[in-house]
């Protein structure tokens, strides 16, 4: 092997190593750290407008520690190919008033999700409590549009 081919092989090996290393780091950040998500539809208005981009952290959902009033991104229980953006109203052990006027208890390992726009939201009032395993992350910061960049407000009601 000539000096030139040895140098080329070493350089290619170094690039491959760095590519794999940074790919692994990026994978860990996206899988266990944070991700940008797009919230579509009117169910979270006025808190989140349709097509707002939010930063969601994934650590809370990996450990199953999602506090009440958190806004989360979850797989839709009615269509797992879609994601939904909703607020956690109740956690395991909480009693929830359902639309027919009765109460139900949120079972262990589940949460009750509702949109802030009650008149225009398909949520746990329709499909019941959802498993925490469907939650992809907790929304912590709006990153788009520029006029609304900042932390997400938590309603007091």
TrEMBL record:
Pfam families: Peptidase_S26. GO terms for cellular component: mitochondrial inner membrane peptidase complex. This is Mitochondrial inner membrane protease subunit. Its EC number is 3.4.21.-. GO terms for molecular function: serine-type endopeptidase activity. Its main location: membrane. The keyword Zinc does not apply.
């Amino acid at each position: 092997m000539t000096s030139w081919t040895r140098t080329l092989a070493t350089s290619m090996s170094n690039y491959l190593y760095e590519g794999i290393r940074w790919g692994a780091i990026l994978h860990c950040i996206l899988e266990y750290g944070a991700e940008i998500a797009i919230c579509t539809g009117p169910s979270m208005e006025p808190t989140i407008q349709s097509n707002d981009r939010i930063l969601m952290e994934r650590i809370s959902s990996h450990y199953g520690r999602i506090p009440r009033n958190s806004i989360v991104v979850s797989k839709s229980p009615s269509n797992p190919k879609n994601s939904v953006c909703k607020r956690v109203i109740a956690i395991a052990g909480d009693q929830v008033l359902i639309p027919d006027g009765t109460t139900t208890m949120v079972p262990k390992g589940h949460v009750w999700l509702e949109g802030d726009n009650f008149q225009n939201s398909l949520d746990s009032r329709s499909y019941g409590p959802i498993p925490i395993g469907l939650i992809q992350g907790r929304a912590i910061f709006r990153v788009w549009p520029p006029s609304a960049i900042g932390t997400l407000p938590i309603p007091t009601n």
